[in-house]
Amino acid sequence: MKCLFKAAVIGMSIAASAAVFAQSNVPQSNAPLTRAQVRAELIQLERNGYHVGDGDEAHYPEAIQQAEARVAAQNAAAKSAAANAYGGAAPAASQGGQPAAAPAR
């Protein structure tokens, strides 16, 4: 009976540690943004037609939603282009400065 209990406790601890490890590898989407990330997002929004503090409060929700939609479309297009691209610089495979074969003795 003690052996069965020990096996159950060990099995549960292994399963719990595996679950914790799996969760730690998932990127956290609710992590706070850095100042640089917020600044980059504002620059993207400004390039897509939304200007902070321009005095146009009458169209605030629609204007930012339209700019965010354009940014999302651009990001999706960039991600698609990167996924469909191929090729690139191949790493160098030659070793210069070494003799081709060991000298005979």
Overview of this protein structure:
The protein has three helices and no strands. With 105 residues, the chain is an all-alpha fold. The chain has a domain at 32-79. The longest helix is centred in the C-terminal third of the chain and has 25 residues, at 60-84. The mean pLDDT is 76. The radius of gyration is 28 Å and the shape is flat. This is DUF4148 domain-containing protein.
What can be said about this structure in brief?
By secondary structure, the protein is mainly α. Helix content is 58%, strand content 0%.
Question: Which labels suit this protein?
Answer:
flat, 3 helices, 105 residues, mainly alpha
In total, how many beta strands? 0
- Shape label: flat
C-alpha end-to-end distance: 71 Å
What's the total helix number? 3
Structural class: mainly alpha
- Give me the Rg, rounded: 28 Å
Query: Low-confidence runs (pLDDT<50, min 5 residues)?
Result: none
Listing every helix as H and every strand as E from the N terminus to the C terminus, the arrangement reads HHH
Largest sheet report: none
Helix content: 55-70%
Task: List the SSEs and their pairings.
Blueprint: H1 2-24, H2 35-47, H3 60-84
